[in-house]
Design goal:
The chain is α+β, with helices and mostly antiparallel strands. Helices cover 46% and strands 9% of the residues. It has 27 helices and 16 strands.
Amino acid sequence: MIQSVKVKNLSLSKDNVRKSNRDAGIDTLAANIAAQGLLQNLIVTPLKKAGHFTVKAGGRRLRALQLLIEQGNLPVDHTVPVLVLSDDDNAIEASLAENFQRVPMNPADECTAFNFLIQKGMTAEDVAKRQGVTTRFVEQRVRLAELAPCIFEALASGEISLGVAQAYAVTADTDRQTRVFDQMKNAYYGNQPDNIRRAILNGTVKANDAKARFVGRDAYVAAGGRIEGDLFAAEAGDESWTDVDLLEELAAKKLEAAAAELAQEQGLAFVTPIAATNVPYDMERQLHEFHATGRALTDEEQARVDDLSVENDDLVQQLEGSLSEGTPEAEAANDRLEEIERELDEIDTARKAIDPAVKAQLGTFVYIGGDGQARVHTRMFSEKPVVDPNAPPASTPTGNDGSGADDVDHGPKLSATLVDELATQRRQILVAHLASDPTVALDLTIFLMAQDVVFANNYIRDHSTLKASAAQMPIFTFRDEASMASQTIEDQRQHLDTSWAGHNTMSERFDAFRALDDQARGAWVAFSIAQTLEPTLNVTEGGRSNGFHDHLGRILGIEVANWWRPTAENFFGRVKKDVMLEALEEIGGPILRGRYKDAKKSELASTCASLCNGQGIVEAEIREKATAWLPDAMRFDAQEKPERIRVNSTFVTDEGDEEPEQDDDDTSDDQELAGDYEAERPIDDSSEDYSQAA
């Protein structure tokens, strides 16, 4: 029997078969009831108190009604229709039937219904309010309703899942959707949303791309550029710029204008615009790098430098002695020191200034930095070799190797054997003297490494086995060029002092290099040594593990989180779902993990990336942990393990015991590397007995 009962006279029965997720979606249901009214009556049984009933089926509707009354959206004495059953057993069976026999609405039907309301003239906001959902949810369903017919039919028939349909809907271009659908429907991985999304977005550019930031959204849109927002991304505002050719054209024009202005301002022969975040190596190789040597100081300049140096030393002595910190006299002295430093820099800059006639033969590059700003390559190049008038003339004839030793008459011709013997004896004399002069030896070390960097594309016969060649990357096509670290390395390279490199002979280059100040030479040794480091990772298996690199990282105080953040592209989208869930648990505990345990892999990757880049809407404590989170492999916290080191034909084990070498074919590489020389024995960290095998 159907009758009307006041909500305040209804209570939830313990016999209601729905025990879990009772409060899920109550706000949404309440908003829908407020807009549409109660569309389905409750099922109740009478209580002993007259006019009061217990709800056996419809508990969520009851909670929603109570919430509306509590919020003041319904009157306190609001009545609702109920079906009254007299038998508790029948009531439990009715509750089970109501909850168990319902069939979820087909996503396609749901999308069609939402789209119908929009077509009737309702706004997304109106529909969202009446249905108790977010505006974004309505926009998502409408976007799905406008999928290409073949894809929408596949969704309606159950051929594809809702997640797959959402992947196709990242673009509104139905022709592109259809093309990708035809490619993917028979592909082995064609039902994976990540693969579909990548195929759909192939040929588009993200709004945070360096080139997009360089051109600017307003300029791109004003030129007719189209932008598509991904309604199904974890964060709103995830845009794709679809007219890539237009973006390239706008970037090229803007860079060309900047290049022309720079060439005119500085009197350069050319400034080549590069619409990329780095200057390609091959483009540099096609040109000749120019190294300004810098002229000698004039007598007047030298006298001024001497005077300033004396005044500088005097002020420093006063600040360390008689002048108290914070006094007007001390502040005046510090100000004067800054003025002296600026004047010395101006003199040095004038000394290294390039002659205008030479500058008119030179050029450089302008490119797009990772921050979206135009950046000028600080090194100069020429299409043909250019002679620096400041460079002193070569004191001896110069050969192809720059050693200044070719084509020089050194007396009667000697036999090859005698040449080798005499060369050996002279080498021993040179080595004996160099080994006793650490200052010259250190300068030579830095110089030889720096020369390898500057003349990497040329053969310089320096007759030394010391090399500082840049390490090879494991993937030839991957150089991580747009990262903050790579751009920092390029900046470091561009700011190295190459004034010594423009001299004609190796002897002159070495003398000029030794004349650099300690800071300039120190920058060279740091850069050269750093380039030799090979890629390693904090992993337990494979050849990429090196605990010593982790030790270096700790010494240098590296905070990886300030330089690298995991994204869906560089990490989360390329690992298993369990790895992402474990990351969430590390960040926010089991509760955060449980919140996303049922999410699709692509959605989970986007969520993790957003959290770790400070974009998620979470508690402050979780945000702090998320923005500092790193996968273990990227941390510098591995401990170096003792290694077996060859001593003659014996390996020394971790415990210090000796093991004879195994006689198998796998030791050939070690034998080739070891040769006939004898290596140092491993030493215990706690021991100071640095013994060497004889």
